[in-house]
Write a structure and sequence with these properties.
Largest sheet: 5 strands, mixed
Number of helices: 2
CATH class: Mainly Beta
CATH architecture: Sandwich
Number of domains: 1
């Protein structure tokens, strides 16, 4: 019974610790898309999270603003992972945790993928409509109790989805090739 009460107390203290404090906000623009195969990729992250950002807990909220590198409908995915390493006197291990990892369409003010989480690693996939909308990737969290400094990194990958007319032309071309091969066999 004592172990259960102790566990409840620890969980309650952790929930209070995670829900209090003021978040440090950082907003950046993703502009450096790199072509990779049939799509584009970009990296994001921070190596400057510390307890002095909010005074005590090291809470942070980082926002990455961008436009899709294609005007076609896009599919993609994003991943984020905490930094690992030694702190000056407090030990080794994961330095940050995530409470939110989300992709939002700023033009329509809607959530596309992700959401709230409590993790050291998170990912999601998404489908973005065709057009020139702007998007915001939001990463929130805080420092692990045994770290005064922390970091995280992530990547965002996007691939254009061909328009239906492209598939129609492909099927028509395959049909013509099949027809010509069949005709050649008959002659």
């Amino acid at each position: 019974m004592k172990k259960i009460l102790k566990s409840i107390g620890i969980v309650g203290a952790l929930c209070f610790w995670l829900s209090s404090g003021t978040a440090f906000a950082n907003s950046q623009h993703i502009t450096g898309w790199t072509a990779s195969g049939s799509g584009w990729g970009s990296v994001f992250g921070s190596d400057d999270i510390n307890r002095t950002d909010d005074g005590i807990f090291g809470f942070f909220t980082d926002s990455y603003l961008f436009a899709m590198p294609t005007a076609l409908q896009a599919v993609g995915g994003a991943v984020v992972i905490t930094g690992f390493g030694p702190d000056t006197s407090l030990g080794v291990g994961p330095s940050t945790y995530f409470t939110q990892f989300e992709l939002r369409n700023d033009t329509t003010n809607t959530s596309i993928a992700g959401g709230s989480t409590f993790a050291l690693f998170d990912n999601f996939s998404f489908i973005a409509p065709a057009g020139t909308d702007t998007y915001e990737l939001i990463v929130s969290g805080g420092l692990m109790p045994n770290h005064d400094f922390g970091a995280y990194s992530g990547s965002l990958l996007v691939t254009a989805v061909p328009e239906p007319e492209t598939y129609a032309m492909l099927l028509a071309g395959l049909g013509l090739i099949g027809f010509s091969l069949r005709r050649r066999r008959m002659v």
